[in-house]
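User: Sorry, folds how?
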Amino acid sequence: MKRLLALCVTLLASATLLAQDKSLREANDYYHKPLGELLLIEFSPLAEVGSRSGARDALEAEVPIDVITAAQLESSGYTELGKVLTKLLPGFNFPRPTVTDGTDHALPFTLRGLSPDQVLVLINGKRQHQSSLLNINGSVGRGSSGVDINTIPLRAIDRIEVLRDGAAAQYGSDAIAGIINIILKGYGHDSRVTATYGRTAQGDGIMGQADLFYSSLLKNDGFFNVTAEARDRGPSNRAGGDSRDNYRINHLIGDADTQDGLFAFNAELPGDDLIFYGHGTLDRRRSSAGALYRLANDARNNPALYPNGFLPLIEPRIDDYSASFGAKGVTAANVRWDLSYTHGNNDFHFYVANSHNDSLGNASPTSFDGGATSYTQDVLNLDLVKQIGKLNLAGGAEYRQEGYRIKRGDEASYKLGSASNIAGAQGFPGFQPQNEVDAKRDNRALYLDAKYEFSRALTIEGAARYENYSDFGDNLDKKLVLAYRPHEDFLVRASSSTGFRAPSLSQSYYTATVSAQYETDRIIQAGTFGVHHPVAIALGAQPLKPETSLHHSLGVVYQPTSKLSLSADYFDTAIDDRIMITGNISQTVSEQVRAILERYGVQYARYFTNAIATRTQGVDLRLNFKHNFDRGGKIKTLLSYHTDRTKITDIYPLASILGNQTQTAVINDATRAWIESVQPRDALKLWTQYETGKYRTTLNLNRFGSYSYVGTEFGAEWTADLDLAFQLSKNIEIAVGGENILNAMPDKWGITGQAFTSGNGVMQYPQSTPFGYNGAYYYIRLNIKL
């Protein structure tokens, strides 16, 4: 990795010897162009994230930033933001786990190989709330609660700014891996209707979507934009035949059957001295996916209800919304100010169908309300910016309040009846009354950001942020950035920062248990206990501390013209006190543990703890090229490469009462793999778009690197996406295309390609495959400008 970085630096430095004065050369070039060609010139998009000194060219930024435009988003056949970013953003990983309870319905994503909750997501620069879902099963992001990025309608987005740098000193908790800032469409966009229909090559995964984007112009260059989307995505199934059931396909292994209704608005109303603004998103999702199939002779089956066995269906109803309102202006002392309030909520309500509670016998219902989790966030923020000569000063204050709740399910979903000792709804036992939680916390923050431009050649920036949390106390983060331009076309940039992630309320307070009754007629509990629960405390649980990080980056940018730029960036992120969930701590661990569990009537327990320290190193390479041909055609090409490695550098032992399992209760081969090896080792992406006259062709090539799980290696794969668009008239465009048109599939479990033996043959592909296992997908899209 270091040799690769050294080579890139050498090549870029050598290229500067051939460069001429860029600004003079391009000014002369524009001077000789006719007006018609000047109007067609596309300038590089500007990015605001990462600095409060104003928007700047992403390729001249002091820290590495990517900008993904609406044109790139809309030329993809996928209509869900997570899947689109998988193809456009190196280092962004969005696997499609299945048979993982709630995670099937709100998929986690990662950036730069780190956890979903170590990425901060903003909308128009305002903090977006996380999902209330806690991923506790076998998937990338296990033990985390991240932002459900698919709640944001694709057609509402103007651009996406991705900061590939630690930024907790500027934005607070979660910005360890970086920041994704989603900018909604503002002034000057045409109203339009879009309809999309697609399906996989195997005939399933049928997707139909209709979108409306409507923009209304207001006085003084104001606007009010609304976006409405209705999406119906059918399930896909790549299950293998069950070896226990004559190789019958009895499982659902693939995408969930999901219906989404999405809405977004974005508005600005300028006045004489200030601007009022607001934006918001809404998603109502209804989804269905399978748990594990219960055979007819399974002890968990009731033959009177299901003589041939049954597949429980987990069918959550997810409601997610956010809204921000504020005002901004400039004082008489030329201080820019921005005062805003943001409210966000996620409600994840579990329902179970095609199931039963075995302990209730033949009287058991077959559908259940399993209860719900919910998360609420309120943020009050004030930003101030003042330019004093070459010094740009920014600062502000923020107050944030968070709330997390668990609501019980209906009694039948968790009740222990007399027919057997297997209680609760099969597939997902409901939350019990003792699992109910209503937790809150708040925090206050003060921050300062200073940027000084000594000259065009040298810029230095420093930032500091102090935060006080009501549950764990104070935190102070710092950041230093240096940008040096030895030549007009060449930029050297470096940054160093500390960071942190506050433990989520779900990690501290999540409790989910099931009941069973044994010969002693004593009811026994088992499951996950919050760190404040007496059982967890007795087993050694401590209040969670924030994760802390130390981040360094070094990069170079070479941009001889506005048509061509190259960049290379190296990063190193060390994180202490990473939070993980323990394994099941049972009575066999030690005599002390046996006594504790018997005292509380618990069969086994697990809880969250500050478990490990890690170090992640990686390299990002970028090439941007665009060219307008003499006869009117134009081409844009983006070539990017990302690689990273994460290693566990320390394991913190648990309480001594666990005997020789003080470390193995947290880290075993499987949990180590979820941290170190199940995500792709690298990714290569080549996006090319050629446009001439009424035709536009977009080709996207992706190479997803290899990965492994507990000794099983899965090879790298290439995928190809193609989008062909034709302008039928001034206002109507039609496009056809395909994702993964070469029908690439990930390696199956096992060296010779046989199915995973311990999965009875049904789980043919690994949960962590980075591009899913649906195969080729084809679509048609109609776009009508209103």
Notes: The first helix runs from residue 2 to 15.
